[in-house]
Amino acid sequence: KELEVGDAVKLLEHNTVGEIIAIKKGKAKVLSGSVILDIPINQLVITRKQKPGKSSKSAYKGIYNELSQKTANFMTTIDLRGKRAEEALSLMQKYLDDAMLVSSKEVRIVHGKGDGILRSVIRDYLKSIDEIEHFGDEHVERGGDGITIINFK
């Protein structure tokens, strides 16, 4: 059966249950407890509705556990040296999302010096993110223009 608004679904990555409230361009907005998540449709499985109250409690527990795990395992530096620009941007976007999720104040992107192409692509992208207060080169003794330091608001 194709997913529809109102279906109860299991979120595979979050190991929790929610209800689809909207579907658009391969993604579904899923209400899980009091949280609305944008999830790719291929990460959802139709399930039976749970009893009222149980869904929000298990959804909160699943999201809390995931956030706790991300916070415990979060590294303040990501190394993108040797990656192609498209791959580096994809990895960096996920990394920055996680950094903001765990309320990190400062992170480092290691992109290397080389011809400066990766540095340029990364910094062009960083200019578009409102949550970033400032970014710039690391101190010369610690990598200089081969590392970008990002400070969040």
Walkthrough of the structure:
- The protein has about 150 residues and is of the alpha+beta class.
- It is about 30% helix and about 30% strand.
- The protein has 3 helices and 9 strands; from the N terminus they run E-E-E-E-E-H-E-H-E-H-E-E.
- The strands form 2 sheets. A 5-stranded antiparallel sheet has the order 4-3-2-1-5.
- The chain is elongated.
Largest sheet, order of strands side by side? 4-3-2-1-5
Shape estimate: elongated
Please mark out the parts with pLDDT under 50 across 5 or more consecutive residues, or reply none: none
Structural class: alpha+beta
Helix content: 25-40%
Specify the biggest β-sheet: 5 strands, antiparallel
Helix segment tally: 3
The averaged pLDDT comes out at 86
Helices and strands, in N-to-C order?
A: EEEEEHEHEHEE
End-to-end C-alpha gap: 44 Å
Q: How many strand segments?
A: 9
Q: What integer value in Å does the Rg equal? A: 19 Å
Range of strand content: 25-35%
Structure described in brief:
It contains three helices and nine strands; from the N terminus they run βββββαβαβαββ. It is of the alpha+beta class and 153 residues long. α2 packs across α3.
